[in-house]
């Protein structure tokens, strides 16, 4: 009873412990060490504290932003002449410069916080010694976090050459390494069918977004070297009436037209074999299209093949609940249990399914 009142308030209100459990990206089961008062050093952060739970969600949102905007910026914006002028102007002209700087600073702060955050050893003991925490972090995620936090924009700032711009775009994709750590933390939601379904859809859309950025980068890199303008970008320019002009760097389709068309091509190639209105013409585009089709077939096997199992598992839980309630009602009717106790029995099994069974 003390444990239940500690976790879920006996007065019906939300306790701080319950709030942290909802926010926490760690284990869902309440371990024994959380019920004890650990001895920690000054400036040391408990890994299950409310501050750490909120901070982990903040870093998760920044990683999602990085996973979406870093490939998009590296492929579309860094090579755009107008966007390049805005970025070279400084932080006052380009909001993306400010956001990228904030993301770099937050990732660096996260590394410092991880050096002062406790962890649980193999004996289920909370380790709060700074030296042991540092060694544990160095052996774990430090290298990935460090590479993802390097501000490549500031390190190579001032050089406006096209080679440097391409190098910055490639180096900034190192931030995507943090997705490995996020994937490990999201494992706790694998038991919830609806959450897994939503997560699979988001993963599919994110992979299509990455492939769209690569598809555009291939067409944009090889377009100036084509003797016959047969690339997909030139075909798009002809369809929209926005032809490329060698003397005008800003000519051709807009960034919006190019991104939407690239995303349409990757989605149609991943879910089917495409419709042909956006087609690969050069050898590089055809090789990439073959790779996209292979990735699409693999995603069908690994992602969409699990959808039917997930939906079946969702309905199986409801069917199990109704079967259990039917047995309870038959038990009540057979033993002629009076009304107050009968109502309490039914409410208990409802609570056990919706609160504990899930």
UniProtKB/TrEMBL annotation:
The chain crosses the membrane at residues 57-78, 194-218, 287-311. It is a multi-pass membrane protein. Residues 54-316 form the Ion transport domain. Keywords: Cell membrane, Ion channel, Ion transport, Membrane, Potassium, Potassium channel, Potassium transport, Transmembrane, Transmembrane helix, Transport, Voltage-gated channel. Pfam families: Ion_trans. This is Potassium voltage-gated channel subfamily H member 7. PANTHER family: POTASSIUM VOLTAGE-GATED CHANNEL SUBFAMILY H MEMBER 7, VOLTAGE AND LIGAND GATED POTASSIUM CHANNEL. One of its GO terms (molecular function) is inward rectifier potassium channel activity. It is found in: Cell membrane. One of its GO terms (biological process) is regulation of membrane potential. GO terms for cellular component: monoatomic ion channel complex; plasma membrane.
């Amino acid at each position: 009873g003390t444990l239940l009142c500690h976790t879920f308030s006996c007065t019906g209100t939300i306790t701080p412990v319950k709030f942290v459990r909802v926010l926490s990206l760690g284990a869902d089961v309440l371990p024994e060490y959380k019920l004890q008062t650990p001895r920690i050093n000054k400036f040391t952060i408990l890994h299950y504290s409310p501050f750490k739970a909120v901070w982990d969600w903040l870093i998760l949102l920044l990683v999602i932003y990085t996973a979406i905007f870093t490939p998009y910026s590296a492929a579309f914006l860094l090579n755009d002449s107008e966007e390049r002028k805005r970025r070279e102007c400084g932080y006052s002209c380009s909001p993306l410069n400010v956001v990228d700087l904030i993301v770099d600073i937050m990732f660096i702060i996260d590394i410092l916080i991880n050096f002062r955050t406790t962890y649980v050893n193999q004996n289920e003991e909370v380790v709060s010694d700074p030296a042991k925490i540092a060694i544990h972090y160095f052996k774990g995620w430090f290298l990935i976090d460090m590479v993802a936090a390097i501000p490549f924009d500031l390190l190579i700032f001032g050089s406006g050459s096209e080679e440097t711009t391409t190098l910055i775009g490639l180096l900034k994709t190192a931030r995507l390494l943090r997705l490995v750590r996020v994937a490990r933390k999201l494992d706790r939601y694998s038991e919830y069918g609806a959450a897994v379904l939503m997560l699979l859809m988001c993963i599919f859309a994110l992979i299509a977004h990455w492939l769209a950025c690569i598809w555009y980068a291939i067409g944009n890199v090889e377009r100036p070297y084509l003797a016959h303008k047969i690339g997909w970008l030139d075909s798009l320019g002809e369809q929209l009436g926005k032809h490329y002009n060698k003397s005008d760097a800003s000519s051709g389709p807009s960034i919006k037209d190019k991104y939407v068309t690239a995303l349409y091509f990757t989605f149609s190639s991943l879910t089917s074999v495409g419709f042909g209105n956006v087609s690969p013409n050069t050898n590089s585009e055809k090789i990439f299209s073959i790779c996209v089709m292979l990735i699409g077939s693999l995603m069908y096997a690994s992602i969409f093949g699990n959808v039917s199992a997930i939906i079946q598992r969702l309905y199986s839980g409801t069917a199990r609940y109704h079967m259990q309630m039917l047995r309870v009602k038959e038990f009540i009717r057979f033993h002629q249990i009076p009304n107050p106790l009968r109502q309490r029995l039914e409410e208990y099994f409802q609570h056990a399914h919706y609160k504990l069974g899930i």
